[in-house]
Amino acid sequence: MTAQEIRLAYINFFKDRGHHPIARARLVPENDPSTLFTGSGMQPLLPYLLGEEHPEGSRLVDSQTCLRAQDIEEVGDNRHTTFFEMLGNWSLGDYFKSEQINWFFEFITKVVGLDPDRIYVTVYSGDESLGIEKDNDSELIWRKIFDDLGVSSKTVDIGSEENGYKVGEQEGRIFYYKDKNWWCRAGSAENMPVGEPGGPDTEMFYLYPSVQHNKSYGEHCHPNCDCGRYIELGNSVFMEYQKTDSGFSKLPKQNVDYGGGLERIAAASLDNSDVFRISLLWPIIAKLEEISGKKYDQYTNDMRIIADHLRGAVFLSVDGIAPSNKEQGYVMRRLIRRAVRFAFALGVEQNFLQDIVPVISDLYAPDFPEVNSNKEKVLEVLLKEEKVFRQTLRKGVRELKKMSDIGSITGKDIFTLYDTYGFPMELSLEEAQTQNYPINNDWKADFNNQMAEQRNRSQTASKGTFKGGLGGHTLQHKKYHTATHLMYQALRDVLGKHVIQHGSNITEERLRFDFSHPEKMTAEQIKQVEDIVNGQIEKDLVVTFEEHPTKEALEDLHVLGAFGDRYGEIVKIYRMQAKDSELPFSLEICGGPHVEHTGQLAEAGKKFKIIKEESSSSGIRRIKAVLS
Q1: Are the C-beta atoms of residues 189 and 127 closer than 8 Å to each other?
Q2: pLDDT value for 461
Q3: Which contiguous run of DSSP H or E holds residue 431?
Q4: I need a surface site. Which of 276, 479, 605, 606 has the fewest CB within 10 A?
Q5: For residues 398 and 31, which has the higher predicted lDDT (pLDDT)?
């Protein structure tokens, strides 16, 4: 089966069992500041796993796109990707272990057609110190399934992953693990914060007998070994506990949260442990072979990294992220630039993304309408980033080679590449390792010192000026400064949370504001922003400020700040809030000054109006606005 066929079959299989299909969530999670990306299928559904009623009922099914930036260095083997799809089905206080385990086994063996004799499973061994029981129920369900098929159902108690490398498989079929089979966002039951849900899980693995165990991972192989003999296909979490002040208590409802890797299931369907051979990745590889004249078998690592990274970059763009030097935009920029770097190694220096991005879009457009409707925009965003970086890449690679000819690469060298040529630190390190250039042992401390000195120089140069490009102290300056805050929030409301301030300049006649956004604003969007700002002016919001420790402001209060700004230990936070409202319209770090209430902006009948919206640089738009 192709990956596309498996995705559709999975949705239909669970639809037939009373599940309602739900749309995928964006790669950037809503209202979850704890993480940059949606990294699992359960993330968007957490409120419902905690007891909130879902509008579509108690049985749900989907295929959720996910991105895990922490896996970026692992891409290159046959199974790790930063971007992937997770097939998911949920029971919110409805069915439980027996239905879930039997249904998924039926789907994998009867629909996808995998060999039951090559399926191995793991279950939770419990934790007496925390009062959490061993998951005997799941073991008994699995044992009956295997016994009915005449497949060995021997149970082995492994304990920890480390112990697994000592004791090995022992001809087992069902394996008990401790922390590895407890699922929560904190990683282990001991580390869970109060209020967090979690529970035991059972994981399914597929054995590739032709893959030889690599003892560099450990003496003996076992299902959770990283050597690649066993590949995990899915994880059924039985979400039934919640951490409390006094320990663990049962949730009001027992939930099922299943997540399975579409790419890995599709690879197993092909009986090939290489996920890059599946129908959602191989066409990208084939195009790379065509435009480079190189073969996958000889340039496997390079082509895998390119294919993976560009899938992630395409979907980030679809979901409204633009390349930048901060948060999600930084990860997107890194994905694109690493892909371009590895294409450079393949000898592809022209029309790279022009040829590859449409292939990726066409793979997903039939099943994800948002990909189809954003094809041109995505290509434009990625091509801009490629064009800028290709110039940087050539200069950076040349300069790094010159530095290595003199001696080992120092932190100062890496900083110079970053500061002068825009060459990212990570890319310098990767290039040095690829070319076997020696790197000085003290490079990191040296690099950090150079960065600190640069910040000090910047602060000295800007001494005596206001943050945010304010050009004076008159009432008119204050009005435009206040209007800038209102517009910033309005832009995020209309265009999305990817909008980040990239600079401003305020005079007595107008305000100018730069922000991240990948495309020209429409006339309708401009009108929406104007209406929101004028609406807040009409509400006569009270403007106040308070001082907070910087860490508290950024991490706990989640206030807005200007892109690239460096703050001291204490920051001033300006709040613009209606007297009868519990929440502020605008909450932002700023050095001041502002008017005392927004009604002052409307004196003499003046209205806020955007007079110009244009491109400032790649991925950055510029607005000029007046009060007239």
Answers
A1: yes
A2: 36
A3: helix 425-434
A4: 605
A5: 398
Residue 456 host element (H or E):
helix 443-461
Indicate if 73 and 110 belong to the same structural domain: yes
User: Which pair of structure tokens corresponds to residue 610?
Assistant: 């955007």
Q: Structure tokens of 472?
A: 């004076």
Name the residue range of residue 623's domain: 475-627
Evaluate whether residue 239 is within a structural domain: yes
End-to-end CA distance of the chain: give it in Å, rounded.
Answer: 63
> Alpha-carbon distance 600 to 537, whole Å?
8
Closest CA to 183 of 162, 158, 201, 196: 201
- pLDDT for residue 467 is more than 80: no
* Statement to judge: residues 344 and 257 lie in one domain: no
- DSSP H helices, 50-135, are 97-106
**Cα–Cα dist 25/582, whole Å:** 28
Length of the chain: 628
Evaluate if residue 481 carries a pLDDT over 70. Answer: yes
We report the CATH number of the domain holding residue 171 as 3.30.930.10
Residues 262 and 302 in one domain: no
Q: What is the pLDDT of residue 422?
A: 66
**Inter-residue contact 321 to 329 (CB < 8 Å):** yes
Separation CA 368–CA 402 (nearest Å): 47
Indicate if the pLDDT at residue 416 is higher than 80: yes
Task: Report which secondary-structure segment, H or E, holds 421.
Answer: helix 411-421
d(CA 43, CA 191): 18
Residue type, 581: S
Tell me the average pLDDT across 422-451. Answer: 85
Based on the fold, state whether residues 190 and 219 are members of the same structural domain: yes
Place of tokens 């006094």: 246
Radius of gyration of the chain (CA): 27
**Spatial separation of the C-alpha atoms in residues 111 and 17, rounded to whole Å:** 14
Indicate whether 51 and 164 sit together in one domain: yes
- For residue 32, pLDDT beyond 80: no
Other Cβ atoms within 10 Å of 616 Cβ, number: 16
Residue type, 612: K
CB atoms within 10 A of CB 509: 11
Whether 125 and 24 map to the same domain: the answer is yes
* 539 neighbors 604 (Cβ within 8 angstroms): no
CA nearest to 240, candidates 307, 302, 305, 189: 189
Domain-located, residue 95: yes
For residue 126, give the nearest of 134, 118, 115 by alpha carbon: 134
Report residue 310's pLDDT band, with 50, 70 and 90 as the boundaries: very high
Number of domains in the chain: 3
CATH of the domain at 519: 3.30.980.10
Distances (CA, A) of 472 to 469, 479, 591, 601: 9, 11, 13, 17
Mean pLDDT of all residues belonging to the chain? 87
Q: pLDDT of 281-301, one tens digit each?
A: 999 999 999 999 999 999 999
Choose the most confident range, by mean pLDDT, from 31-40, 548-557, 573-582.
Answer: 573-582
Q: How confident is the model at residue 218 (pLDDT cuts 50, 70, 90)?
A: very high
Give the residue from 172, 167, 166, 190 showing the smallest Cα distance to 123. 172
Question: What are residue 540's phi and psi, to 5 degrees?
Answer: 55, 55
| DSSP run (H or E) holding 390 | helix 375-406
pLDDT for the residue 468: 39
Mean pLDDT of 604-626: 89
The reported pLDDT for the residue numbered 107 is: 97
Distance (Å, rounded) from C-alpha 183 to C-alpha 42?
11
537 and 600 co-located in one domain: yes
